[in-house]
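Regression report. Comparing outputs from two consecutive submissions.

Submission 1:
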Amino acid sequence: MILILMSVLIFGAVSVAAYAAYTTAVTERNPVTLRLRELRLLHANTASVAYGRRPTLLLKLIAQVGGFLPASDGSDAMRTGLVRAGFRRADAPLIFLGSKILMAAALPIAWTTFAYFAARPLGNTFVASVALGFIGFYVPTMFIGIRQRQRHGDILSALPDALDLMVVCVEAGLGLGAALQRVGVEIRLASRQLSDELAMVNSEMQTGVSRTDALRNLAERTGVEDVYSLVAMLIQTDKLGTSVAQSLRAHAESMRTKRRQRAEQMARKASIKLAFPLVFLIFPALLVIILGPAGIQLLKALSADR
């Protein structure tokens, strides 16, 4: 059963890789595909440099493998999640799906191979292979979730400082577009993620996208609630014609207040988080150290009385 399972998995993996390599080679020789790719890269370079990076052969193969999965209704949601995790490539969804397939096949194959060379079954090999395939299929999803949380926290922590810089730039006489560009350059040392997002907003406005749409795209790409409120404030200020500097200053003060409140909340949660290690790890060791010698002397005294 193990040999049959290994043979089927290896044959499937080799067949998929061969087909992906063949499809990639045929696509590379197609002049129409090459021309469309050049136009797509040219259009992407006007919006972001990240889109113009040439993919490696491994990423091409993974994307080809991911193309075997049928398109689902949640493709737009998947692309939004990848963009919020920092993956803005055009073929990022295909690479993501291909990674899920490869991980679902690689973990059972590695487990079965290890059990075969160990010359002893490590439990029920078939059940373990199915469980590892299920786990491997969701490993890329967990990785994307972790990246989203890290990027969310990075943008959220740097946003108040960016707003303060934006207030200074606007009050110095710069327009909103020039202020976004300047803040994107200055905030890069503190937060590269926020700097890239602000640079992309400025690039979109320079390529003809309206300010409202560019700001809304910023909120969609980040997925941060504070960025949504900032974008809503800027759009409302632009429509009503009120002072941008005063609105930004008031919003910056509220953002600093929220950041202080989040820090206080985390400080209050620290005592609760320390309860488990204190009760189950530190207190037992202290009890053994303090009461241990007294217990030994008590046992000696009782044994001497007998």
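Submission 2:
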Amino acid sequence: MQMPTWPRLKRSLVAILRGVKPDEVESIGEKLIHAGFEMIEVPLNSPDPLRSIERLARRFGAECIVGAGTVLTVADCTRVCDAGGRLMVSPNIDLNVLATARARGMISLPGVFSPTEALAAQRAGASALKFFPASVLGPSGIAAIRAVLPEETVIVAVGGVSDKNFASYLAVGVRAFGLGSSLYRPGMNAADVAAAAAAAVAAYDAAVG
């Protein structure tokens, strides 16, 4: 079975809700989707993450791709899928986790930082590559690695990326962005997230032109 490809979205923005709690996740998810986000990730080191994923998938699964970040094991990947998650994001390349994601029909986004890692993930059939932390590589570092990757490779910049620097990454071929602390931090309410999401979408639209 082939790994699902990166989806065609109006905006390739992934909202990363690290630290979100189940009792607030639906109100925050609603604001994100209203602003224009079509992908939401709940990292597994958040409080009761599978419950948050289940709530998001049940309520918004028809209009948004929901999944998990910091997926480190086959068991984690399976549990995320069983909770309704369709997106598997990891900080590393684990061939067994990628194979499980493929078998379960999940979009996979493993973390890479070097040409060796990027090519290994690409050969393993990853749906897209998460360059993390993008702020350390910067646009020039990502551009240098992208030069040796297949043209069709989808690159997602994560880590230190915000609405302030979309244009510089888009200019070197980055196709998507994962937004974490610039979008959501524990303690922010739904109104705070709505404002940050609106700013991110406006900046993305302006950068894409």
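Expected: both submissions complete independently.
Actual: both completed, but the second showed a warning that disappeared on reload.
Relevant detail on submission 2: The mean pLDDT is 96.
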